[in-house]
Amino acid sequence: MEILKHEFEKTVLWYIINDNKKAAMMLIPAGMEDKVKKAWEEPNGSFDARAKYIHQWGIGSLVHISLAHHPKISGTMKFSQSSNDLIFNEQKVEKGDDCVKIITQLVSEEGYSVIHTVKKYKGYNAFMVDCEFINNSKRTFTIDMITSVTLDNLSPFQNDDAPWKYAFHRFKGGWSLEGKHICDDIEDLALEKSYSACFVESEKFGSLGGYPVGRYFPAAVFEDKEYNVFWAVQLAHNASWQMELTRQQDSLSLSAGLADCDFGLWYKDIKPEGHFKTPAAFIAVADTNFEEACQNVTSLGNIACDEYGEDGLSVCYNEFCTTWGEPTQEKILSYANTLRNKKVKYIVIDAGWSKDCYNGQGGNGGWEINTDIFPDMKQMCDEIRSMGMIPGIWFEMEVTTSGSPYYDKKYDNQHLKRNGYVINIGGWRSFWDFTKPEVIDFLTKRVIGLLKENGFGYIKVDYNSNLGIGCDGAESLGEGLRQHTEAVADFFAKIKREIPDIIIENCASGGHRLEMKMMGLSALASFSDAHEADEIPYIAANLHNLILPRQSLIWAVIHKDDTEKRIIYSMAASFLGRICLSGDVDKLSCDRWEIIDNALDFYEKCENIIKYGITNLYGGRGNNTRYATGTQAVLRKTEKEGMLVVHAFAKPSETFEIKLDSNIKITEQFYNKNVSVNANVIKIEKMEEYTALAIKFELEK
Description:
The longest helix is centred in the last third of the chain and has 22 residues, at about 475-500. It contains 14 helices and 40 strands. Strands 5, 6, 7, 8, 10, 11, 13, 14, 18 and 19 form a 10-stranded antiparallel β-sheet that branches. Strands 20-21-22-28-29-30-31-32 form an 8-stranded parallel β-barrel. Strand 6 and strand 7 (about 110-120) form a beta hairpin. It is α+β, with helices and mostly antiparallel strands and about 700 residues long. The radius of gyration is 26 Å and the shape is globular.
């Protein structure tokens, strides 16, 4: 057994290569290398039907792949002949100023190979991984499945099948219920080892269609409870995906990639000299806690975020929860006049501004300005800019809806089809085919052109239906979907390329596109469609393990009859990400505005913590999002400072404490009546229902 070792600040990568040149990768927390059991050093035992335990260990694979002409095993496309035929050829390391690449080549006698690439960026405790399939033969290969990343040999700190020692963490999606964390013991998933392990068992899950966040987020964490080690994975892909947790004899295998032929009707033909690169995956390991493993992964989003060029955590105002789909030029200017000196940077017009539009979303597709309600859009934008703010506007550019002249049979060939029929959701929404050059030309004129001509500096891109499992246009429905969604991503990039200063908001009925690929193409994202609900802080806290708070745009809807308690509750929730004001801003009394102004001052002082901190959750909140109970205390901190945001739901928790490693000094407070500090202990007294507070503090050495 050969081991190629690569040491980084907090993680060691082991590539293990057996005598048959099969290769697999391990992520090990730095300092724990001596605890790896090296299960390969003990020979596998002989079959005994009455034995409680037989040592059975296999190396796994650096990449799992299944080609159509090869035999599979029962229950999964992993561990197929296609994977087994790949052997280690070479590995090279490329070192740059900010990034180290570990490039490993696997080859087969049949003429196909895979390039497995791991990227480690300076300053981050996580890795980007992808795989590239290359056809060096004279025949066409059909890929039925290929993983972006595989972590086999979980856990390397156990030398047997580890009963009652493993847990698996996932995150549920759901409209206005985003990000709920669920945890299952391996036994509850029926993935304990059977007496002979002759069948491979898998827990396969994912999302299908144009909503990458469906019932699950593309994220998971495997936990070794005995050694307190957590392996986290996120997949960056804006269409159908899958993850599989597979029992492989004594150990388990966690993989992520495109939804395969069985699960997502995806297969891909690769002609001679052709190649195919998988979506990127993001991975990390931590021996501290679950949250740090998750947020080590999400922290890699800062690379794209910093490159995007967004300045600070600028506040947005969106009029949707003010006009509810009936904006006018007069109303927008009234709101802008109210907000001109209120630390608000973006004034965003939401649905209802376009010609032929009705009820906000009906009649959309042509994207021409309704001059009856916006007689001079450019003049309005110029006036907003003269007030020191930037105008923004909403589009759902990927669809046409009933009532639009483009929702018509004569445009059928420019819309996505499945089995020859135009895909229609709800009887009134269809989808432009972004692989068609004429569609891109049309939207370039109607979307990018409108933004340029009128001086908009912000675009909210919404997407309010899932087109389903796939579409025509390629060798499989799944590949048709992948090519279409890749073209959608390219159009997002085209908007930014043609308008370099534009701010793009990623929205899909709230949080259905909260994945790393779309987040990397956007400055920020709608965290949820929970516009005014009591559970806003609950959902916002969930998302700290899945996206960067600096990109999580959280609604703070304020109405003229809101109580002081309600406004404090709403504004404190928005500290858990980016502030998006809405509501009756032009009708609020001075005392109500004083609370909002105090909130904006506090938020501004916490910018560095929101952008670069690590979050832990305390307080014992209940598990029902809609009817939340208990108290939620979100502690986010860097090495030098921190922020605590506390919300009491129904039946708040009794007094509790949070103990840190350093002494604490409170430097800023937002309507704090219940939090005190003594040395390194924060004490939260029992609070009234539906109240909130926040503090900012320094960590003393």
